[in-house]
# Entry
Amino acid sequence: MSENTQVVTQNTGAVVQKPKTFDMALMEKLDSVNDALPKDFNKQRFVQNTLALIHDNPKLMEYKQSEIMSGLMKGATLGLDFFNKEAYLVPYGSQLNYQTDYRGSKKLAKKYSIRPIKDIYAKLVREGDEFEEVIENGEQGINFKPKAFNDGKIIGAFAVCLFADGGLIYDTMSIADLENTRKSSKASNSPAWKNFTGEMYKKTVLHRLCKHIELDFENPTQQSNFIAGMEIETDVSEIAHREIAENENSQPFEVVADVEAKEEPSFVTEG
# Structure
């Protein structure tokens, strides 16, 4: 894993090979992709948080440094923080894949959306809740009135993006849609899906909605890495199992098939 760097000794002036530390290698890599990094990117903070991530996940260092760096650079160019679970390096067999978490997707949507975003969220719909898609005065929207303290059977989920100008878009998925997505995933039997099914449902519909928000990135590298992070479908069980115990919202996000999002509804009411 380690690389070497040349160092001149003070006493003799001889050039010797000194092992290059990971943080040095990471900073050099960041410097090499400087033009693709966000304008407000903090390299030192990224390096510090990455070292903390590796300290908590030492098995990552069992992979080739080139794979680690490749994944880290994808997140770095998007301005995402691996330590704060906005993105992941996900083991899949002998490979290490990059994946954007739903929190990272929300962050990117808010930052780069052509239309300023006020909020993005997802909710479950359970038996006993009132939910309907409606058209009033030619405007499409959602009426949602959840039953208090309802732990009934989940029958669907929806996600909403509220724009600062008062507009919004939303997407809905029935339980059949959600389960079809789950069954088509390589990670369908992962601890995340088994133990926190509702959270995975919300992340699925929210991630799908984010694909339909028009974004204006700073450079083409960000655009391609955003697409790559949204489309990878991996078995996240190893990381998910470890992080579920910390926070049920920390599971890597499932990637779903493209469908057309609902266009420009103008209101959501929630009782």
